[in-house]
């Protein structure tokens, strides 16, 4: 079951045989090869349980050499391959569409190097983001990215999706903080076999592209690593990552704010930039249905700005949890504003002055400052839990778009009106909600429904993509293209760009075995 995406299996790909499995077992040992149908289930199904493939084998290599050997074999047999990290991707990119071999990085989770002066970290691709952050934390540093899936996602998956997350506004994108990569290519580059000197490493049969440097500055021609940041596994398998960590802040302040309108949210954002500029580390927003969903569906999650902190009832609709599009007595929007600094007194004072300013000009009607780490965690859970709450509620259509910040919520309102007019309003259990990284102009538009429905989908797509294209936005701000949007790439990329992407793919992966059906639209016949 892969929803609403019409693709056919590429008949040129080989099919897994017992001989193939025997080869993999001999290479990785029995523990590195999964063939039992029950054990394969989690490799075949994505986090949302929306995309389900049918692989017959999942592999768990431990070293770059093993990845290189298994890709050499898959290339020779034309076996299609899906790289898989923590499998938290949201666009159907991390699971097979048909019977592609899953190559999981789960057993490649070692930290290889850490420099306590510069804060550069080198780790295998399967290291879990949260573990790396804890590792860096023990040395006075932090990972330059953070996201709700941190407990499961792998650094290789983060790099492959160019994950953005909650603190991009401060620490920038992975295109800046990734210093080096090691990647195994599906085919050896003719002429490169045996090479390995000059600090570029690689050697072997020319399949390992070794760009694993920790230099801040390195202007030596094309910056090849950038190609793999956000390539979603279509060009090769990332086996190790070098990344610049940031100093861990001595002082963290967090405010949860209630805003009376979306223009008030953007006004508060402007004030935050002006008054908190050098310490600002996150600016997030969620609308009131998101807050209600999180408090209604997730245990222990509360909104401290609501009476009792819990979800209010009333209003009907919304699948029985009393969630509606209305604000049900609460504010229509909430914001999280966080600072990372080095002096708690100074930062607290700045935050208090900011609060005075935004409450004084009416852009914020209520607010609370986290008084402890536990309170801050609990506020973050309200924001980070929205995705999970939506998945628990039922079917979800997810869109992750970049739009001009000042008008981005108009898309939510326009779609809400469009669906309601066609009988898919809150009284039918359909909720159109908006949240996301307002500081980065990134809106998460989610449509929650009791069940998947083709009629509903045809009202959402291509409407959303056309809207985004008309407003010069991006159909993927941070989640990637995956399977979900492969046929929609042209809403955000022109024909020359798409053709160049295809040609790069063909040079690196002429048989097209790396994560097929994903990212690139099929060539027109
Ligand atoms: P996977 O899901 O396993 O894979 C993602 C893609 O990368 C696939 O195409 C896969 O083939 C490829 N891939 C994985 N590992 C490798 C590798 N080693 N080499 C080559 N290709 C590889 N994303 C954001 O950008 N910001 C957020 O704030 C955010 N929050 C999230 C919150 C939740 C609760 C969830 C479930 C997801 C969230 N995501 C977010 C989406 C997701 O993109 C990220 O969680 C993460 O970057 C994916 O990492 P992963 O290891 O799970 O990769
Ligand atoms: C977030 O910011 C994630 O919470 C997930 O990027 C968004 O589920 C989504 O649509
Ligand atoms: Zn996000």
TrEMBL record:
Signal peptide extent: none
Keywords, ordered alphabetically: FAD, Flavoprotein, Oxidoreductase
A GO MF label: FAD binding
EC number(s) recorded for this UniProt protein: 1.1.99.39
Annotated Gene Ontology cellular component terms: mitochondrion
Record-stated family: Belongs to the FAD-binding oxidoreductase/transferase type 4 family.
Protein name per the record: D-2-hydroxyglutarate dehydrogenase
UniProt source species: Pleodorina starrii
